[in-house]
Amino acid sequence: MGPRPSGLDPDMVRRIAGEVRELIDLGFQVAMVIGGGNLFRGLSAASQGIDRVTGDHMGMLATVINSLALQDALEKVGGHTRVLSAIEIREVAEPYIRRRAIRHLEKGRVIIIAAGTGNPYFTTDTAAALRAMEVRADVLLKATQVDGVYSADPKKKRDAERYESITYQQVLERGLRVMDAAAISLCMENRMPIVVFSLATPGNIRRAAQGEPIGTLVKE
Fold it and tell me: Are 195 and 132 in contact (CB under 8 A)?
């Protein structure tokens, strides 16, 4: 959503697409798991009286909207893409099938994974961890609004410490808001490194993929 309070910011979508295209040109295989919080949050809807399962399904549909927007932007810069959805919506996306996803990656296509895991009560973080395992990713990159993992909310505490690296166990023990506990536990069990970095800085996606020391590395 860029600087907007909600919705889609076309400039931000185009910038992300350009950075992802740069990764493809550098030879990376890219699988993207897209959230939908800029349009709708199931958990927030539940607090307003909407059934939690219904709200989560509405949130999944929001991720499909974002995925289609990113697909359009990527194709306009010459990228080859496939949107894969965990809930069937065949008119606009392929169903997520692990072997098909891997095949698309092998052919140099960017796969944009929508609708999370397809199940209510599971976050996009958990979906990202799960899909990273399934496609045998080398690293899970979490692009977010802050430039790493902090000891406390840096917006509320100016003296919050930013970690350059931290272990999965420390994240869980300290209750740090990196990803939800299910996602962290899944990454820990499968030794999947996580890099948390800010999406606000242009070029950070490439820097993170190339292993430059930005953000926070979560590892064993």
Answer: no
Q: Same domain for 159 and 200?
A: yes
**Helix count and strand count (H, E) for the chain:** 8, 10
As a whole number of angstroms, the distance between CA 74 and CA 47 comes to 35
Indicate if 133 and 144 belong to the same structural domain.
Answer: no
Q: What is the pLDDT of residue 61?
A: 96
Taking the whole predicted model, whether its pTM rises above 0.90 is answered as: yes
Tell me the C-alpha distance between 184 and 214, whole Å: 20
- Helix axes of 98-106 and 124-134: crossing angle, nearest 10 degrees: 70
State whether 89 and 107 are in the same domain: yes
25: which residues sit within 8 A by CB, 6+ positions away? none
3-state secondary structure 14-32: HHHHHHHHHHHHCCCCCEE
CA distance 52 to 64: 19
Task: Provide the domain limits for residue 66.
Answer: 1-137
